[in-house]
Design brief:
Blueprint (H helix, E strand, L loop, with lengths): L5 H11 L8 E4 L8 E6 L2 E7 L12 H11 L9 E4 L10 E5 L16 H20 L16 H16 L5 H12 L9 E3 L8 E3 L6 E4 L6 E3 L1 H13 L14 H4 L4 H12 L7 H24 L12 H18 L1
Antiparallel strand pairs: 1-2, 2-3, 3-5, 4-5, 6-9, 7-8
Helix pairs in contact: 3-8, 4-9, 5-9, 5-10, 6-9, 9-10
GO molecular function: transferase activity
Organism: Roseobacter denitrificans (strain ATCC 33942 / OCh 114)
Protein name: Phosphotransferase, putative
Length: 339
């Protein structure tokens, strides 16, 4: 958690955030391993503050300025995002850059199995997620001032290089399965088909707020990893999460009877997305899934390193991440070898 002086932070927020008066309360959200996020209370209004973590950070990580920029740009589209209110500089009362946005009131589903709902309700929630993802990928970046939000072309090649470097920088000891995956991804690299869109980078059910009484997405959250890239990266990343265990650290749907619960299977979900985007169902689906596994384990390796150095947003899970990373690497290698 950040260190700060209450009065200094209060004066800053009152000066820079529209509608903010006294700082009546500040509470850190317990979930999340990346950018520390706080609920601020001022009068009868709640705000959300999202900051870079303290300490030395990996290059290009924790970019709250990019989160602010993409949500500000998407506000004029049909992609639901919170209304952003302020982006600070690096020199702040928290000792780190932060942004402030509105607090959207609604439902967050931490369990992707949607326990307690009917099959029809579950199906509608997942269809809303599918529709929202298709909307995002249909936005033309140039039309909202995001034409320079990422590098053009060769997205997966650049991403494999980036996350391989991030993993190697963060790892304390080599993990054979992870090193094997780097080689496999490079050897089996998909060709660049020219598809490009705004990609969220962490698209999953618990990064969304749904309406209290309807299967409608009110806000997509956590844009830290967003960039311009290949839309199939987002689609495969979400589907990869459904393959993860439905237990422990994971919030997946592995071994869950989806049909009985009314949840779409992977093929049906991919087909619905492609129909909405009017594109063909992708070839080389295994590559996109394996890439998603490797990217996630590289991200978690960075989280674990910060935890070992005392800079994690949620340090209690630091040691457990070692086993999580090993499991991701093992399962991804098995998927690649048996496809």
């Amino acid at each position: 958690m950040h260190s700060y002086d209450h009065k200094t932070l209060e004066a800053y927020l009152a000066t820079h955030v529209p509608g903010f008066g006294s700082l009546d309360g500040i509470e850190k959200f317990s979930d999340g391993q990346s950018n520390p996020t706080y609920r601020l209370t001022s009068g009868g209004t709640d705000f959300v503050l999202r900051a870079k973590p303290p300490g030395v950070l990996l290059k290009s990580a924790h970019a709250v300025d990019r989160e602010f920029r993409v949500m500000q740009a998407l506000a004029c589209t049909d992609v639901p995002v919170p209304h952003v209110l302020h982006l600070s500089g690096e020199d702040t009362p928290l000792g780190a850059q932060f942004m402030v946005m509105e607090m959207v009131k609604g439902r967050i589903f931490w369990d992707p199995a949607l326990t307690g709902m009917s099959p029809a309700e579950r199906a509608a929630i997942y269809d809303a997620m599918n529709e929202t993802l298709a909307r995002l990928h249909s936005v033309v970046p140039d039309s909202i001032g995001l034409g320079d939000y990422g590098k053009p072309g060769n997205y997966f090649e650049r991403q494999v290089t980036r996350w391989s470097g991030q993993y190697q920088q963060a790892a304390r000891a080599p993990l054979p399965d992870a090193l094997w995956l780097m080689e496999w991804l490079s050897t089996n690299m998909v060709s660049d088909d020219g598809a490009s869109s705004i990609v969220h980078g962490d698209y999953r059910i618990d990064n969304m707020i749904f309406a209290p009484d309807a299967p409608r997405v009110l806000a997509v959250l956590d844009w830290e990893l967003s960039t311009l890239g290949h839309p199939l990266a987002d689609l495969a990343y979400q589907c990869m999460h459904w393959r993860l265990p439905h237990a422990g650290h994971f919030r997946g749907l592995g071994r869950v009877d989806r049909a009985a619960l009314g949840l779409p299977d992977e093929a049906a979900y991919v087909a619905a997305y492609c129909a909405r985007r009017q594109i063909s169902v992708p070839d080389n689906w295994t590559f996109y899934l394996v890439f998603s596994y490797f990217r996630l384990l590289a991200i978690l390796q960075g989280v674990r390193r910060r935890g070992l150095e005392g800079n994690a947003s949620n340090p209690k899970d630091t040691e457990r991440l070692r086993d999580v990373i090993a499991l991701l690497a093992h399962d991804a290698r098995q998927l690649a070898q048996t496809a």
